Here is the input.
Amino acid sequence: MKEYKIKVNGTNYAVTIDDLDESKATVSVNGQAYHVEVEGMAAKPRTSKIVQKAVPTSTTIPTTPTPRPASSATGEGAPVKSPLPGVVLDVLVKEGDVVKVGQKLMILEAMKMENNIESDRDGVVKSIVARKGDSVLEGDVLITIA
Here is the structure.
C-alpha cells in the first residue's frame, strides 16, 4: 500500500494505492475507494525467472571478428544492419560493387556524430535499402551483400 498527497487545481487529496494488478488498481482518494484502469502499464509476465551462471569454455577471446559467409543458403545475401538509429549521410558503394571486409559502405549520423558503416564480409553489393537522407532505426537493413 502506497500513500501519496497530490494537489489538483489547488485542491489537496490523500491518495492510497491499495491494490495494483496489471492495468487495474484499487485506490482510495480522501477515504473513498475507486477501481481504476491505469493506461501505459504493461502486463507483467507470470513466469518464474531462471538464472544460470555463465561458465567460460575457454580462456581465449578472439580479437578480430570472424567473417561470415557472403550469402545465405537461399542465395538472398546477408544484410548489413544499422547499429543505432540515425540518418544516412552518404552511401559510398553502389549495387554490383565488390566489397572487402572492413570497407566503408555508408556514413550514418547518430547523436551528432558521423559513424562509418563497414562491411563485415567479402562479397558483392546485391541491394542498397537505405538511401542518402533516410532515417533508420537500430536493426534496420541498410545494404545486402551476396
The chain has a mean pLDDT of 77. The CA atoms of residues 58 and 70 lie 28 Å apart.
